[in-house]
C-alpha cells in the first residue's frame, strides 16, 4: 500500500442500530488499548471492523489517521483526520491532531485554524494554545516583515497554556524562545528561572536557560545549567554541543574537545561538532588526532553524502588535498548532481593552485545555479588571479546584484579596475577619504595610556588560551580570542572602556562621511550599528596577517595595544598594517598602496571591503591588537 492510498473501501453505511453502536464503542475502546500498547496492526484490524459497519464513525477515522501517521503514511493520515472532521467538525482533539500533523510536516500556516478550532471547542486545551503559538513563532522566523507582530500574538497563547498547566515545560521553553526572538533576553530568563524553581532538574529548562545565557555571552552562568542538562540527558547531542561551545568561550579547550567528541559519537555527521572539534585540536596542538573523527564517522555512515561533503571541506581546510579529492569523488558517485559539488571542486582546485581549472569548474556550476554566491565569488577570484580583470569585474558585478552589500563584490571590483589600470569610477579604495587613524585618549579613571593598557593586557591575556592560530583565519604565528569580545556580558572593565571609546570614535567617523546613496560604503550611513565581531589577535616572531577583507562587516578597525620595538623602523615597516595588496597564491599580484605605522593607543578605521594585511616582523616581543567589525541594520 503506497503512502496516501486508503487501506479499505468505504461502503455506504445504513443507519446504525443501538446494539451496533454499543458494539462499535466497545471495539473502539479495544482498538485504543492496542494502540496505547503500540500494537498498531491489531488496533487497525479492529478499526476496520468498525468502519465496515459505520464508514463515517469519527473516532475510528481519527484513530486510523493516528495509526497511519505513526506508520509514516502522512498523506493517508491527513485524509482520515479530515474525513473525521467532515463528519463532526466540533472535535477538539481531532482538530488538534490534524494541526499537529500539518505543523510536523512543515505547514504551520495551515495548522493555525485547526488549533483555533481545538481551542474554540475546548477552552482549557493547553497543548493547543502552545502549539498554535509555536506555529506563529515558526512563521516569524521566515517572515521578517511580520515577525514582531507574529511573536507578539504568540506570547499570550504561551502564557495561557502556562496558566492552565504551570509545569508545561514545552510552553515555557517556547515562550522563552519567543522572547529571545524579540530581543528580550531578560524576559526569557525570567520565564525559564520561574520554571526551574518548580522543576530544578528538568533537562529542557536547564538547556534552554543555558542556551539563552550563551546567546548573551554569559558563559560562566550558562555552564552550570548546561552541565545539569547533560547529566539528565547524556544521550542528547544538542546539549553536548552547547556545552562544548560554552567551554570554548571559557577557554577550557580540553573540556570542549571532550564534549565535541561526545556529539560525534551520538551524531557522527554533525557538521558543527566535527568542525569545532578539529579546529580545537588544531589550536591546542593535538595535530596527530586531526580529522580522525571524520574517518571514524565514515566507518559508521559510509554512504552518507552530507558527511562526505563536510569531510571534503575539512580536508581542504587542513591542506590534505588528496583525501579531499577522494571524498568529493565519493559524493559524486552518490549524488552526481549535488549542488555542493561545483563549490567543493572549485575550492579544492584553488587550494591546489590549479586556477584555470577552478575558473572552468565555477563557470560550469553557474550554468545550473547562476546566482550561486560562492561560485560567483570563485569566478571573480580566479579571474583576478589569472590576470583577467574584465572577467573578474563582470562576475563581481553579478555578485553585487545577488548579494547586496557583499564586501567581496566591492573588493573584487576595486581590484579589477586597478589591474585594468583604470580609475575606479566609484572610488572604492579612496584611502584619504575612507581610512582614518585616531589616537584614542585613555578612558576616564586612568591616569595615562600605560595604566589603561596594563589593565587591558591583563584582561586579554586571560582569553588568549590557544597555542596555535585558528586554521580558518588570516593570522599566522599567533593566537586569537574567541566569541565577540565587546558584547560579552561581564567582560573586564578595561575592555568595556575600550569598546565605548571605539564606538564614540566610530560615530564621529561616520558623521564626517559624505552622503551618497549609490556608493556601496556610503549608502549604509544612517543604519543602527551592531558589533558584527570583535576579537584580540596576538602575533609572535615572524607573525603576520595575510591580505584579506572582512565579509561580515561594514566598517572594520584595529586598535593597537602592545607593539614590538621593531615597528618603529620606518624603512622596514615590520608589523605595519598595509592596504590594497592583492596576492592569492600564484598569478597576478598587486603591491600595497598605503601603510600605517602602529603605535599603542592608535585606532585605524576603514571599509570592511578593503584588502589589508600585516608585514611580518622579527622580534621576541609580541604584537597585541583588538580588531572588530561593525555592521549596520535598518
From TrEMBL:
<feature type="repeat" description="TPR">
    <location>
        <begin position="237"/>
        <end position="270"/>
    </location>
</feature>
<dbReference type="Pfam" id="PF13759">
    <property type="entry name" value="2OG-FeII_Oxy_5"/>
</dbReference>
<dbReference type="Pfam" id="PF13181">
    <property type="entry name" value="TPR_8"/>
</dbReference>
<keyword id="KW-0802">TPR repeat</keyword>
<protein>
    <submittedName>
        <fullName>Uncharacterized protein</fullName>
    </submittedName>
</protein>
<dbReference type="InterPro" id="IPR012668">
    <property type="entry name" value="CHP02466"/>
</dbReference>
<dbReference type="Pfam" id="PF13432">
    <property type="entry name" value="TPR_16"/>
</dbReference>
<dbReference type="Pfam" id="PF14559">
    <property type="entry name" value="TPR_19"/>
</dbReference>
<dbReference type="InterPro" id="IPR019734">
    <property type="entry name" value="TPR_rpt"/>
</dbReference>
<dbReference type="InterPro" id="IPR011990">
    <property type="entry name" value="TPR-like_helical_dom_sf"/>
</dbReference>
